[in-house]
């Protein structure tokens, strides 16, 4: 499971669909609907919020918006729209790690998307996250 800190606009088609599916799984975990992945490190930052379900619903909402902009037909009924944006901190070290990880995937999977994003200087994070200085997050599996 990879719940990217990066804005979903950087993902290729395969990555965006995978993110949607993996985030729906994460939502099921947070709702207590599955025993699998309960202790997955990617969920730690959501669980630390005052409302993990609001956070995951907002995360899904942004993915859905990106998919809609690309004319994909993701099912909007799979999440609850959130008006107040929750905020989770993420370090610039984590974002740099994810950028490198994503570019390596794109280099193999989608060279056009790779060439489109490989020279970006400041990558946008998903609007759920607030960028701060720091190393790779402790929950990240390297």
C-alpha end-to-end distance: 13 Å
Sheet of most strands: 2 strands, parallel
Radius of gyration: 15 Å
Number of H- or I-type helical stretches: 5
Strand content: 5-15%
Global morphology: globular
The helix content is 40-55%
State the assembly state of the protein chains.
single chain
Q: Give the total of domains.
A: 1
Strand neighbour order, sheet with most strands: 1-2
Low-confidence stretches: none
Average pLDDT works out at: 95
Order of helices and strands: HHHEHHE
Number of strands: 2
Structural class: mainly alpha
Compact description:
The protein has 5 helices and 2 strands; from the N terminus they run H-H-H-E-H-H-E.
Describe this structure in words.
The mean pLDDT is 95. It contains 5 helices and 2 strands; from the N terminus they run αααβααβ. A two-stranded parallel sheet has the order 1-2. It is mainly alpha-helical. It has one domain (8-132). Helix 4 runs antiparallel to helix 5 (111-117).
